[in-house]
Amino acid sequence: MINQDQLRYRRKNVWEEADTKKYQDIMNFAEEYKDFISNSKSERACVRQIVARALSHGFKPLDQYQALKPGDRVIQTYREKAVLMSVVGHQGLDRGITLVGSHTDVPRLDLKPQPLYEEEKLAFLKTHYYGGIKKYQWLAVPLALHGVVCLIDGRVVEINVGDMPGDPVFAISDLLPHLAKEQMEKKLSEAVEGEQLNLLVGGIPIKQGEKERVKLAILELLYNKYGVTEEDFISAELEVVPAGTAYDIGFDRSFVGAYGQDDRVCVYNSLRAILEVGTPGRTAVALFIDKEETGSTGNTGMSGRFLQNTLADMGMLLYPNFNELSLRKILATSIALSADVTAGLDPNFEGVMEKNNAARLGGGVVVTKYTGARGKNNTNDAHAETMAFMRGLLEQNQIIWQTGELGKIDQGGGGTIAHIIAEQGFEVVDCGIALLSMHAPLEIASKADIYECYRAYKAFFAL
């Protein structure tokens, strides 16, 4: 006769289930993750880390292969913003692939094409926010500048200021509370306008000049150090991001606090997982894609053709008669994890969550059947069979997991790349971790969840 414990669904907590060895494994893994995310302040920097680690673990660029066989480790990059890593399985491509797709881009402030101006003998850089942010959170915090300037002679100049020892930082000023009566009476969404997100970058005027002497001083500094002029900003990708490294949070150091954990925590977990996989049954693919925070558009986003083109290139190296129909069959027989984060239940703001279906920090990796908003708009809504498959995989590998939603119905919502992957033929389910303060300059994740997520991706790749 079945007992009551078997009838009920019981949430687990990773810390409560962990023995001494697993506790230490969690903590050690988090230290390596903190180093990765501290040095991934832009998509290009994140991609550089992925590529360096892949090459050091035996992955080779696809164009170095004349043919592919089981066990071959392949890497393909695209425009320094998207990466595909693959380990060819015993079954080849024709039996489908196991794909874990995460995104390298995060909410931030981008410099406008003509950003530099002077007002009241202060120099500023104008920005345009990227992705969903609370604008007021970016005021009066230390900020860094990361990115590249592309010159018309073909040179690419890298600019990274604010994160190295001894570097200056930048800031966006806020209004003092003594004079903020009108500001504080506004809704939070209206208290700070997008055009007020201007970065303070200088205040010492050049010795000679008739006007805008502070601006000229900054231009002279930039030219002397980097060889760039004001016009070169037009062909630049410069991102304003929070300065500083990842932190341990809590007396017990149970959490990681860092910028960009949505979604670079899943980037790191899937990277570690595919680096450690042997020769799997199905071909394993880790996809690191761009532009998710702005709708997955563009040729480096999930709506582009980077994945299909790379799989086609691999197919040509595996099968003599590979064609478009072959590619479509591969996609239709494949299964994928949309590796993205979700909202964790925050006791300070629990009114926005429906507790029965909310993910908890420390509750393990989160499997999310659907995302979207207003009637599951723009969601994948994983099939019941796919959910059952994931339950079985996680239970078989003794991985602690939970389900989660992105808030109450009609409260808000959000999406991932899951529905775009599904439109190509894949069976897809969202699988990541829960965060507190998502999209804030400092996001919070449980070290235990990070580790269980990595274990989930590794088990998935081993199919």
Automatic annotation (TrEMBL):
The keyword Plastid does not apply. Its EC number is 3.4.11.-. GO terms for cellular component: cytoplasm. GO terms for molecular function: aminopeptidase activity; metallopeptidase activity; zinc ion binding. This is M18 family aminopeptidase. SUPFAM superfamilies: Aminopeptidase/glucanase lid domain, Zn-dependent exopeptidases. Belongs to the peptidase M18 family. One of its GO terms (biological process) is proteolysis. Its cofactor is Zn(2+). It comes from the Bacteria. The keyword Metal-binding applies. InterPro entries: Peptidase_M18, Peptidase_M18_dom2. Pfam families: Peptidase_M18. Keywords: Aminopeptidase, Hydrolase, Metal-binding, Metalloprotease, Protease, Zinc.
